[in-house]
Design a protein that fits this description.
Distance between the termini: 63 Å
CATH architecture of the largest domain: Sandwich
CATH topology of the largest domain: Jelly Rolls
Largest sheet: 9 strands, mixed
Shape: globular
Number of domains: 3
Number of strands: 34
Helix content: under 10%
Number of helices: 3
Radius of gyration: 22 Å
Structural class: mainly beta
CATH class of the largest domain: Mainly Beta
Strand content: over 45%
C-alpha cells in the first residue's frame, strides 16, 4: 500500500510506567510521544527500526492476538480518528488509522465548576514525574483542561526537548521557581512565583530544574493533546527570534513586577487587574490577567458571554453567588469556572485577595443587572 507512512506494534500493559521504564532503561528504546500529559495512557517508543505503541489497560489483561497499527498518509480515504481493522490469516489484527491532518477541537459544553483544594486534592502522577490535580474534571466537553501541577522535590527535572499539539497553552508559577528553555528564545531562564509564559503551538521547550515544592497552573485547549519528544533539537539553539510566530502566536514571558505593575479597573467594581500580554500574543484568542482587591467591596450582579472563564484563587478569600447558589469562601488553591449567560455576583472578598483569570477569548462582554 503506497499510502502507508509508518507502522506501530500495539502492546497493552497494566502498568504503563514500569513497562516504559523497562523498554527505555533495559532495552534502550526512546520515547517519541506521550498522551495525555496529565495522566498518560499512551506512550509511543522506538528503537532498532520498530515503533511500539504502549497502551495502558485498566483491569485484568486478557490474552489476545498481536496488533499492528498502520499509519496512513493524509490522502487516505479513511476519515480522521476512525479505525479500519483487518485480520491476517494467523489472527494478527491490523489497524488502519489515518494520520491526523489537523488538530481536533471538541465543541464546548459549558458547566459551573467549583474545585476546592481542601476537598478535591487528588494528585495523579503525570509526565516527567510531575503530579497533576485536575481543576475541571468535566473538561467543558473536552475543549479545555486546567491543571494544578507540582514537583515536590527540587533539582533537575527528568524532561526532554518536547512540544505539544495544542491550540492554546499557558503556564503560571503559583509557588516556587522553575528553570526553562524555549526554541529561538535564547538562554534558559527562571520563572518565579507570579510569573507566567504563553507556550505557542509546537514550540520546542524543556523543563530543566525547579525549586522544592514548585506549583504551577497550566491551562490548555483542547483537553487531550499529544506531547511529542524532539530527539533532534538541542536547547538552547543558536537561532534567536523573539518575535517569531508559531502558528499565529508569539512566545511571551510575563514577569510579575510588584513595584512597577500598572493596575487598571477590572470589569467588576472593587477589583483591579494587571494584563500579562497574552491576549496580544495570541491575537485575541485568550486573555490572562492577575486580579486583586483595591480595598472596596462592591457586589454587582452580572453575566458574561465568553466560552471559557477560569478563576484561580492565588491568595485571600472570595465568596460568590452563582445563579442564586451561594459558594462560600473560596481560598488559596481553589478554582471556579463560570459558564456564559449565568448570573453571578462576587459577594465578599478579603483585602489580600489575588486571582488568576484565564479567558477565551481575550475580550468578551459583561452585562450588569
Amino acid at each position: 500500500m503506497e499510502n502507508i507512512e509508518s507502522a506501530q506494534i500495539v502492546v497493552r500493559c497494566s502498568s504503563l510506567d514500569e513497562t516504559v521504564d523497562f523498554f527505555k532503561d533495559r532495552l534502550g528504546f526512546r520515547i517519541d510521544m506521550i498522551s495525555p500529559a496529565d495522566d498518560p495512557s499512551i506512550v509511543i517508543i522506538s528503537g532498532y527500526g520498530i515503533h511500539i505503541r504502549l497502551e495502558r489497560h485498566i483491569g485484568q489483561l486478557i490474552q489476545s492476538f498481536d496488533t499492528i497499527r498502520l499509519i496512513l498518509k493524509d490522502e487516505s480515504d479513511i476519515p480522521q480518528n476512525e479505525i479500519t481493522e483487518l485480520l491476517a490469516p494467523n489472527g494478527t489484527k491490523i489497524q488502519l488509522v489515518k494520520k491526523a491532518s489537523k488538530l481536533l477541537i471538541p465543541a464546548v459544553n459549558q458547566s459551573l465548576v467549583v474545585s476546592r483544594k481542601s476537598i478535591d486534592s487528588q494528585w495523579i502522577k503525570g509526565r516527567a514525574g510531575m503530579n497533576y490535580r485536575d481543576l475541571i474534571p468535566g473538561r467543558q466537553g473536552g475543549r479545555f483542561i486546567a491543571s494544578h501541577i507540582q514537583i515536590p522535590d527540587g533539582g533537575r527535572v527528568d524532561d526532554h526537548v518536547h512540544y505539544h499539539n495544542i491550540l492554546f497553552q499557558m503556564i503560571y508559577v503559583y509557588k516556587g521557581w522553575v528553570r526553562l528553555v524555549y526554541e529561538d528564545q535564547g538562554d534558559p531562564f527562571i520563572l518565579h512565583q507570579g510569573d507566567c509564559v504563553l507556550q505557542p503551538p509546537l514550540i520546542r521547550h524543556r523543563v530543566l530544574e525547579s525549586s522544592s515544592g514548585l506549583e504551577v497552573i497550566e491551562v490548555a485547549c483542547p483537553s487531550i493533546h499529544d506531547t511529542f519528544i524532539d530527539h533532534n533539537m538541542e536547547l538552547p539553539n543558536t537561532s534567536q527570534q523573539p518575535d517569531r510566530y508559531y502558528d499565529g502566536q508569539r512566545f511571551i514571558k510575563y514577569i510579575d513586577n510588584k513595584e512597577k505593575t500598572q493596575w487598571k479597573p477590572w470589569r467588576l467594581p472593587g477589583l483591579e487587574f494587571e494584563d500579562t500580554g497574552i491576549g496580544e500574543a495570541t491575537q485575541g484568542l485568550a486573555g490572562v490577567r492577575i486580579i486583586r482587591s483595591n480595598g472596596d467591596v462592591k457586589p454587582q450582579l452580572c453575566q458574561h458571554n465568553a466560552e471559557f472563564v477560569l478563576i484561580f484563587i492565588l491568595s485571600g478569600q472570595l465568596s460568590v453567588d452563582v445563579n442564586k447558589q451561594s459558594i462560600d469562601m473560596l481560598t488559596d488553591g481553589d478554582a471556579l469556572v463560570i459558564p456564559e449567560n449565568l448570573s453571578y455576583t462576587f459577594i465578599q472578598w478579603s483585602n489580600d485577595l489575588r486571582l488568576l483569570e484565564v479567558s477565551l477569548p481575550e475580550n468578551f462582554s459583561t452585562n450588569f443587572q
